[in-house]
Amino acid sequence: MSRGGGRTDQELTPAERRELLSRLLRERTRRSGLSFAQERLWFLHHLAPGSSVYNVPAAVRLTGPLDVGALARSLTEVAARHDVLRTRFERRKDGPLPVVDPAAEVPLPVEDLTDVPAAERSARALARANAAAREPFDLESGPVWRALVLRLDTEEHLLVLTLHHIVAEGWSVALLFAELERLYAAHRGSGTGDGEASPLEPLPMQYADYARWQRERWRDGALAGELEYWRRRLRGPSATGGELPVLELPTDRPRPPVQTFAGAWASRRLPAGLARGVEALAQSEGATAYMVLLAAFQALLHRYTGQTDVLVGSPIAGRNRAEAERLIGVFVNTLVMRTDLGGDPSFTELLGRVRETAVGAFSHQEIPFERVVEKLQPDRHLSHTPIFQVMFALQNTPRPRLELDGLAPGRLLDPSRVHNATTKVDLALFVEQVDGTLEAGCEYATDLFDAATVERLLEHYQVLLESSVADPGRAISRLALLPEAERRRLLVDWNRTAVDADADDRELPVHELFERRAAERGDADAVVFADKRLTYRQLDERANRLAHHLRRLGVRD
Q1: What sign does the CA torsion over 60, 66, 68, 74 have?
Q2: At a CB cut-off of 8 Å and minimum separation 6, what does 89 contact?
Q3: Mean pLDDT of all residues in 124-153
Q4: Residue-wise DSSP of 288-300
Q5: Separation CA 389–CA 383 (nearest Å)
Q6: In the predicted model, is pLDDT for residue 52 greater than 90?
Q7: CB of 139 closer than 8 Å to CB of 148
Q8: Of 18, 32, 109, nearest to 72 (Cα)?
Q9: 482 with 457: CB under 8 angstroms?
Q10: Beta partners for residue 241, in sequence order
């Protein structure tokens, strides 16, 4: 096939061929539109402009002689391969329009921190990485991702990648690392690499193809059955429907009228033997580790709130097509795990309910969560997310590693070290299987919770999970929740009311003892609640007024 000037595709230079392919793909993307997840993320982005809530940060420490040029060329080639990394989202009257920009060099700035005192260098690098993770994106002008290298020493660097969720998620980060490894090895010491064959196999499709396929399935009615399933599961607390329950967790502060998405991260390593206990219980009950961990989390939420209708969001990979497994993009979907905890079931009974819920949810996972929300039209409140306010995920794949040629393997830094300081829900529990153990991480709304409260929640989760594994036949109301130190503090130490009294005081009734203290310490605080205080004298006066009022009503000793 010839292109202007009578030249065939075979006669084009590699750079011209890339530009031609980029233009053709750009036009195809215009016709395809956005996926449902992208459409929702675009809407949410404009609902909270300037926020980093949908930033996906990835930072990895690189030890060894880093070839920054080879890394930059590798990043550029990854962007050339994946149209979605070169897509902007123009705002039009009829909605967002995806526009794929031509392949171009990906900037890779290098910030030198070697002049910082060695003892402070790592902390400075982490602070800079967190600042990069929290810098918002402009989806209309692009780019939708960025890269940064922090040089701590001649052979010590920190690579910081930040991608907007509209083009990537956790799976995409692992794919990006895998492609970087092969491309870096090819480009290392090879100059520009222009015209050289890529070591990567051609992609079977682009993300825009997936978006078009997804919308075609929706228009064809292929997902009608799945939508009906979720409509039945989430139609409300009664047969006639109604508003879904809001999970009212005890918080350190009242819920603000408008959700700010400000968040933080806390984590806790669980005992090594607990992972084995979870697996053993799952096998004995025909369940999975995910189901055991989710059941324990929902039992904890029930114990905290007293509510028996508990809804928890749970993200899944959403890559149901083989072709999608190699694409960078946003495929993640969300399922709603709605469980009935009524009747004070044993943990084994609860696990059976969770198993039934999870099997049903995973069997109807193809429909995008965005379509479910759209069809259900739940009551909207700016103070919290619709349908569910907490999330749970089990991360049972190894944390992504980046093994660049000639460098020591680097593992993705934990969110406790590099985080975008936001949260999408009130509370999200992530349990990760690490080297045969379990690590529980919690992303939480700082508008609602203090760090100490969330750390205590993680400890309670561990104790309840241990109790569930040790005695799954016990009712969930009787499962241990408090660690021994906290149990003793609440039930023993704070209840030690026995005190030595003076000989003259031992025969006096309580009200006379109090009057004596009021006379001695009248201006001292006797009661403190929030910002209100009562002195001993004020409390004694109120008690006397109440006593006289009761006597006038006829109350006698």
Answers
A1: negative
A2: 34, 38, 42, 96, 97, 98, 99, 139, 140, 166
A3: 97
A4: -HHHHHHHHHHHH
A5: 10
A6: yes
A7: no
A8: 109
A9: no
A10: 238
Joined tokens for residue 43: 């809407």
C-alpha distances (whole Å) from 106 to each of 137, 288, 358, 467, 526 are 16, 43, 42, 52, 65
In this structure, are residues 405 and 64 in contact, taking their beta carbons and an 8 Å threshold?
no
| DSSP letters for 361-420 | HHTT--S-HHHHHHHH-PPPBTTB-SS-SEEEEEE-SPPPEE--TTSB-EEBPPTTTS--
> Nearest to residue 527, comparing CAs of 519, 515, 535?
535
Which residues, listed in sequence order, are joined to residue 446 by a DSSP beta bridge? none
Burial level of 129, CB count in 10 A (0-12/13-18/19+)? buried
Strand boundaries in 258-353, DSSP class E? 263-269, 309-316, 333-340
Q: Are 21 and 9 in contact (CB under 8 A)?
A: no
Average pLDDT, integer, range 67-72: 97
Here the tokens at position 208 are 């825009």
For residues 16-54, one letter each, b for 16 or more C-beta atoms within 10 angstroms of the residue's C-beta and e for the rest, the string is eebeebbeebbeebeebbbbbbbbbbbebbeebeebbbb
Question: CA 225, 227, 228, 232 torsion: positive or negative?
Answer: positive
Reduce the DSSP state of residue 247 to 3 states and report it. Answer: coil
| pLDDT, tens digit, 9 for 90 and up, residues 493-540 | 667 666 565 655 656 677 777 787 778 777 888 887 766 788 888 888
For residue 40, what are the contacts with CB-CB under 8 A and spacing of at least 6?
370
Place of tokens 């069809």: 375
Cβ pair 51, 136 in contact under 8 A: yes
Which token pair is 338? Answer: 């709605």
Tokens of 195: 């015209």
What does DSSP assign to residue 262? Answer: B
| pLDDT, tens digit, 9 for 90 and up, residues 209-228 | 999 999 999 999 999 999 99
Using the predicted structure, report yes or no on whether residue 21 has a pLDDT greater than 60.
Answer: no
Within the chain, how many helices (H) and strands (E) appear?
15, 18
